[in-house]
Design goal:
The complex is a heterodimer of chains A (266) and B (223). Chain A is 42% helix and 16% strand. Chain A has 266 residues and is an alpha/beta fold. Chain B is α/β, with parallel strands linked by helices and 223 residues long. Chain B folds into 2 domains: 83 residues, Transcription Regulator spoIIAA, CATH 3.30.750; 104 residues, Pectate Lyase C-like (3 Solenoid). The chains are: A alpha/beta (266), B alpha/beta (223). Chains A and B meet through helix 7 of A and loops of B.
């Protein structure tokens, strides 16, 4: 039985889909079998970010409705062995499936794969309920903005109410120089408010935009700082104890961070 | 003991007076004057909604109301009949509001029940109790606490807290770090000042003084 990990945030545009694509690719690079499940029915993006949009024949809704077999809707990523995508339907909406159906689907997928990564839509409505239905682990993505942290807090509450204890936190799009100047929310403060374990901090990186538009996850590029941060996150998901990387050699900012958070990680 | 022969209590509708059971009527009257006289201005025009505690005879009742209305310009709402149409302290038609009456009656009592919550109360979560609320953890921005009684947060209180939801101004909101979005006691609402984010240094509590919510250290000068 594999693990079902839901990647969620509450607020839109904080990088759920990018995170799902990178972590999925990273896990595949580490030799695990992975399926990326796009739960954002009607506003699918994961296929675009992965560069697989023109191969979609069947989708998640087709599987749930029994129009095709599960295997038929799985798109194999040719670049990485053992990486598959199950796309969302684009012409339907979130009410096309219900949590029971999603629970069964994720369960079926978890029997075939080591990891099922569910890319959750923004919001807390039907789509969110569908996405978390079958999850046994959760990752909350946020950015260093008050609104994103507020929504993340709400989401953590809902996840806990749903029985998903101990969600893990990824802080995305951190601008190192802004934090240094004190113009950006302090990472320490965010972890303090959300009171959950920090899984990783992703620096703001122009390369993400380029790689997203090209359909090549940043994690596959060794020059990308964000890609490096995702690599570390993947290792932490696999249970390795990776220190937080030093993103700013001059100031040693991340080193200080790692020290500050060292005791938080269990 | 003698000091507490009468106690004024505030509710949404006005004041009510609690008369100590074992006191003589003469003592009660004397204490009433002692209490009101120094702050006559404060009590002027005040509305008394109810008398509780010691049961008065019609004559005593009239004398008491007479003193309040004639000497101190206070107003007594209701009459002797309505006052004692209560059964065991609960008015017949108020039976469905039993809890409310019980709780206001034993306001300072230790028997009042408390609702304990362990962990972080997060945005969008609402904790409600018809007694007190005690949070063993933080209350985050966007979280709501609503208690008929008082509220104690053993951590950071950054959300919205409402104590005395049924109009009891004698309730309080306390926290190790009181940095709320908004505080409400009874029907009084207050919020943190605009501008620079307020950082709480010591445990504080919010109480009602002269119709306003004020925040003071829990272990302060006048406690």
């Amino acid at each position: 039985m594999g693990e079902v990990i839901v990647i969620t945030s509450g607020k839109g545009g904080v990088g759920k889909t990018t995170t799902a694509a990178n972590i999925g690719t990273g896990l595949a690079l580490e030799g695990k079998s992975v399926v990326l499940l796009d739960a954002d029915i009607g506003l699918r993006n994961l296929d675009v970010v992965m560069g697989l949009e023109n191969r979609i024949v069947y989708d998640l809704v087709d599987v749930v409705e029994g129009i095709c077999r599960m295997k038929q809707a799985l798109i194999k990523d040719k670049r990485y062995t053992n990486l598959y995508l199950m796309p969302a339907a684009q012409t339907k909406d979130k009410n096309a499936v219900n949590p029971e159906q999603m629970l069964k689907l994720t369960k079926d997928l978890a029997e075939e794969f080591d990891y099922v990564l569910v890319d959750c839509p923004a919001g807390i409505e039907q789509g969110f309920k569908n996405a978390i239905a079958g999850a046994n682990r959760s990752i909350v993505v946020t950015t260093p903005e008050v609104s994103a942290v507020r929504d993340a807090d709400r989401i953590v509450g809902l996840l806990e109410a749903h029985g998903l204890r101990n969600p893990q936190l990824i802080i995305n799009r951190v601008k190192i120089d802004m934090v240094r100047r004190g113009d950006m929310m302090n990472i320490d403060d965010m972890v303090d408010i959300l009171a959950i374990d920090l899984l990783g901090v992703i620096p703001d990186d122009e390369y993400i935009v380029i790689s997203t538009n090209r359909g090549e996850p940043a994690i596959s590029d060794s020059k990308s700082l964000a890609g490096q941060a995702y690599k570390n996150i993947v290792k932490r998901i696999l249970g390795e104890n990776v220190p937080f990387m030093n993103l700013d050699p001059e100031e040693g900012f991340m080193a200080k961070l790692a020290k500050a958070f060292g005791f938080r990680r269990k | 003991m003698k000091d507490n022969a009468i106690v004024f209590k505030g509710t949404k509708e006005g004041l009510y007076i609690v008369l100590k059971e074992e006191m003589d009527f003469e003592d009660i009257l004397q204490q009433l004057e002692e209490k009101i006289k120094p702050s006559k201005k404060f009590f002027e025009g005040a509305k008394i909604t109810n008398l509780k505690g010691k049961r008065l005879t019609p004559k005593e009742f009239e004398e008491l109301v007479g003193v309040l209305e004639n000497q101190y310009d206070m107003e007594y709402l209701g009459d002797y009949e309505s006052l004692y149409s209560y059964v065991n302290g609960v008015k017949e038609e108020d039976k469905n509001r039993l809890n409310q009456v019980q709780i206001t009656n034993q306001n300072n009592g230790q028997e009042e029940k408390a609702f304990f919550v362990k962990g972080t109360v997060r945005s969008g979560q609402l904790i409600k109790s018809d007694g007190n609320i005690i949070i063993l953890g933080d209350v985050n921005p966007g979280a709501y606490l609503e208690a008929v009684g008082s509220i104690m947060v053993m951590g950071n209180m950054r959300g919205i807290a409402h104590s005395g939801t049924q109009g009891d101004y004698n309730t309080f909101i306390a926290a190790f770090r009181l940095e709320p979005m908004q505080l409400r006691i009874g029907d009084i609402i207050t919020r943190s000042p605009d501008g620079k984010k307020y950082k709480s240094e010591v445990p504080e509590m919010a109480v009602v003084r002269r119709g306003m919510i004020i925040v003071e250290p829990i272990w302060g000068r006048n406690s």
